[in-house]
Specification:
single chain, alpha/beta
Length: 384
Amino acid sequence: MTMNAFITGAYDTAVGELPGSSCMGLHAEAAMGAVADSGLKLSDIDGVLCAYSFTEPHLMLASVFCESLGIHPGYCAAIQAGGASACIMVMQAAALVASGQCNHVLVVTGDNRLTGMSRDGAMAALAEVGHPQFERPFGISVPASYALIACSYMHETGVTSEQLAAIAVEHRRHAGRHPKAHKREPITVEQVMASKEIASPLRMLDCCLISDGGAALVVSSRSAARDTRGLPVEVMGAGQGHTHEHIVAAPSLTQFGCKASSKAAFERAGVKLGDIDVAEIYDSFTITLAVELESIGFFERGEAGHAAVRGDLGLGGRLPCNTHGGLLSYGHSGAAGGMFHAVEAVHQLRGRADVRQVKDAKLAFVHGDGGILSAHCSLVLGVH
């Protein structure tokens, strides 16, 4: 089977603390970079998908973006699904080009979440994730919700805090090879364990960063991809999985929609788990990655922590994972956090990842999740 959709352009801006940056400025830089990478002109873009912004919230962010860039696509929409937004937008872009509604869809994300809002403002925005009746009045936070998952998962599987810390250490090792990463200095398991407790058992270095940055892709139809330059990356499979929105309504604290989304993506692509050369999987917290690695099936239940300790997620390991450093060390700027994973997969498949390159990478798995492991979208990308 084929989805008849190809990623023909990819670009990521600088990441970290970017004084003077803005949501629209990051969108524009990422968009123009991705279009230039594809060898196209802005006038060739006939579809635009954006996500959302905390610093410049708007009901019609995609329209605001098109207005600011002076483009007039035939299709324009904003998609809001938290950390799953980037993958869902790629899936939607693939559907648009495969159906013939568009030739080239620009998928763009960006936010100056670090310099563009206060810590209190960020916390207030994230608190809106909680259920207004059953969660917010009791002071729940996003880290506290993931801490509930961590407690349940640790109880059921025996995974330890030290094993989760090994995930953070490996991610920082990956980020140390990426010149753009927000945090590059090495860390140890002992440093993770000694970092400030945020919501037991999660500590500061178990949690993702808050960063400025943007990223974008161009998704083209099979026929239109011939007019682009460089190596096109095929969107071979995609799938979604949804089990709940608020953690109080989750049917399980250890099984989530990534199982369904990945199954659909692999079936559509006609490949197996063992075929994947490199994985870029959403890692808002160390427990997020551990749960998803096992739910997707890359490791047996209770084995992800041991795998991290063994180095299985490293560059020469069984499953090189989040080779840019992920949200834990590369950077996290809203919906762009998930897009960084997709852009890194494209870099890997094109052989443009420099010292972090996975040898002979031909198949990549990308996964995003939004909310409290609520919305899930999986992609299988490949080159021939």
